[in-house]
Amino acid sequence: FGTFAYVAAQVRSDEENYILTPLSPQEGIILQSMPELKMPAGYANRDLPYMVDNSLEIYMRPAYQQAGLSCGQASSIGYNFTYEMSRERNLNASLVENQYPTHFAWNFLNGGDGYYGVSYLHSMQILKEFGMPDVIDYGGTMSFGGPSRWMSGYPQYYNGMHNRINNAYQIQCGTPEGLLVLKHWLHSHLEDSDIGGIASFYAQHMSATNTLPAGTPEAGKYVLTTFGGSPNHAMTIVGYNDSIRWDYNSDGQYTNDIDLNGDGEITPQDWEIGGFRFANTYSGGPSFGNNGFCYMTYKSCADPYGGGGIWDNAFHVIYAKADCNPLLTAKITLKHTCREQIRVRMGVTTDLTSETPDFVLGFPIFDFQGSCKFMLGGTTEEDKTIEFGLDMTPFIDLISPNTPARYFLLVDEEDPDNWSLGEIVQFS
């Protein structure tokens, strides 16, 4: 899970509503490059309950509707990171101070005005390499200030540095073995825990119109039995139920042992029994499905992408850090009239006479982003100036104890026509 070049999934809006468009080929390659989470040794033979529903845990925040086209961040941060961080710290995610905003991450790569969706892989890079302020520090709501605002205030950035992930993984669920890995993750977090995790995935947004048949478990609850071939939306798996049923071949039976697709094998693509429960932040959020939740069949996870299945048959999970304490930080006040023309990095050298650093540290934020707006996204004179912090702790491992060092603030500007004005106001 290194440093990648991220390309925003393009999503435009017309006069009446948003139009979702699929992940780009570049984003697909990045998602597929994530390390795969495997079953720990000896785990596959452990018993599982027939159902798990982590939306009932205190670590799951209440259902909500995303603002704009922030579905990638609504799933990966609003639900997934909030849950995993609350689980690590044993906090109640129904409290706003234990929730994390969508727009801190989304606003750095959404085109500056919110016309673009952003792959949640970029969000996960921010969660790992920088961190995330909570909703209170962000301003009080998930999307405070709208799609153009960049947060200002060193204390808020410093607090955000404490909230991070160790890593992110994919789980391939096109096989019984992969489905079992995800079920164990949901049940025990693959670590002998009494409380499992949740997961994010991409698929085409579908309206919830079908309901589970009468006389079957969870009858009357909404279910998606197939997905389209345009992976334009991120959603969140919160549990599973091995007993829900859907009669795909309309033979009046519910089976997992009939070759429905005629390929000569019995695989999850032939299963009519069992499925996952997911949360959706689009189409009204809490008014979607059953109070924001819906079932999806195991078959819809295993079917090929474009043939009824989810994107790449993949789910994505994160490991949150219970504790993260920055030891060396920079406090910066910067003024500029076109934020997409600048990149901010930090440097260090132990040669106190050097005018250049030996090591340079880049960040997934303040990296030629946000369109040609003032630093805070507004139009007033005050919006030209932003105060923020960056974590330089990785430099500590490069410097011997008690060794003097010289630190650099590097601001690169791409303004070939010399149209914009900028100033380093303060650096400490």
Structural features, described:
This protein has 428 residues and is of the alpha+beta class. Helix content is 17%, strand content 21%. The strands form 4 sheets. Strands 1, 3, 4, 5, 6 and 7 form a 6-stranded mixed beta sheet that branches. Strands 12-9-14 form a 3-stranded antiparallel beta sheet. Strands 11-10-13 form a 3-stranded antiparallel beta sheet, with no helix packed on it. α2 (71-89) packs parallel to α4. 45% of the residues are buried. Mean pLDDT is 92; it is low at 1-18.
Provide the low-confidence segments as ranges: 1-18
- Mean pLDDT metric: 92
Number of helices: 8
Oligomer: single chain
Radius of gyration: 23 Å
Give a short overview.
The chain has 428 residues and is of the alpha+beta class.
Topology:
Elements: H1 25-32, E1 51-53, H2 71-89, H3 103-109, H4 120-129, H5 135-138, H6 154-160, E2 165-172, H7 176-188, E3 199-203, E4 223-224, E5 233-245, E6 273-279, E7 293-297, H8 298-302, E8 314-320, E9 329-336, E10 342-349, E11 359-361, E12 385-391, E13 406-413, E14 422-427
Parallel strand pairs: 4-7
Antiparallel strand pairs: 1-5, 2-8, 3-5, 5-6, 6-7, 9-12, 9-14, 10-11, 10-13
Helix pairs in contact: 2-4
Essential attributes:
14 strands, single chain, disordered N terminus, alpha+beta, elongated, 428 residues, 3-stranded antiparallel sheet, 17% helix
